[in-house]
Automatic annotation (TrEMBL), chains A, B:
Keywords for the protein's UniProt record, in alphabetical order: DNA-binding, Transcription, Transcription regulation
Gene3D superfamilies associated with the record: Winged helix-like DNA-binding domain superfamily/Winged helix DNA-binding domain
Domain HTH arsR-type: 1-88
Full protein name: ArsR family transcriptional regulator
A GO term for molecular function: DNA-binding transcription factor activity
Lineage, top ranks: Bacteria, Pseudomonadati, Bacteroidota, Cytophagia, Cytophagales
Domain of life: Bacteria
PANTHER family xref list: TRANSCRIPTIONAL REGULATOR, ARSR FAMILY (PTHR33154), TRANSCRIPTIONAL REPRESSOR SDPR (PTHR33154:SF33)
Length: 106, 106
DNA sequence: TATACGCGCAACTATTCGGTTGCACAAATT
DNA sequence: AATTTGTGCAACCGAATAGTTGCGCGTATA
């Protein structure tokens, strides 16, 4: 099964997990405490996040700390880039219209 | 069925449609020509995109033009914002380390 | 050494997803 | 008036999804 970043962030729980571990690495158990699902379910989400490299693991004794791979988030940003250009253009169009209205005021 | 932007952009075909109509509005038939699926399948995608307001319709005779609601794309951008801050911090941390290495060079 | 703990993996299940085909309906064209 | 065209909608289907429970395997702790 092919995993990509966009499919990974489609699930709200997964986005919440990303938000959680963004600031500091956490173990599956610690993460699961924040949700209304089983540890195994969280484990599955972490597996999916790992598969598309949004998350990396660091074993520490019998605990595994999961940390966000922030750089991978840029992939989404990169896709948005093309549209950012458009919405900035739309804004400058609007600016143009507005300034025309201004100068043509009686 | 609850639709949100993140679930909408999870599908690659949907992302391609978004890319297609970003620059100019198109009819379902015109869009379908770009893909290897039926017009009805495209119609379904457009329905999903409409449900989460990523796309708006404009009837013109018997044709319906679908146009990207660029502003809605900002919702994704807004979510990325919190992580953008982190990855910029990571970069400045790196800068710091690098400049330390530099100054401490023999 | 025995026990408790943290974790991943496998099997099962209900639901959703993305696709198909067939149809109905309104708008254009003849 | 009859036909073609553009579209949405409903029914169906196989695959994927997100969850569950049960289990086994290392690693700590008693």
């Amino acid at each position: 099964m092919r995993r990509d970043v966009f499919q990974a962030i489609a699930d709200p729980t997964r986005r919440a997990i990303i938000g959680l571990i963004a600031l500091q690495a956490m173990t599956p158990n610690a993460i699961a405490e924040h949700f209304d699902t089983s540890r195994q379910a969280v484990s599955k989400h972490l597996q999916i996040l790992t598969e598309c490299q949004l998350v990396k693991q660091e074993q520490q004794g019998r605990e595994i700390y999961y940390q966000l791979e922030v750089s991978k988030m840029k992939e989404i940003d990169k896709w948005l880039e093309q549209f950012r250009k458009i919405w900035e253009d739309r804004f400058s169009e609007l600016d143009h219209v507005l300034s025309n209205l201004k100068t043509n005021k009686p």
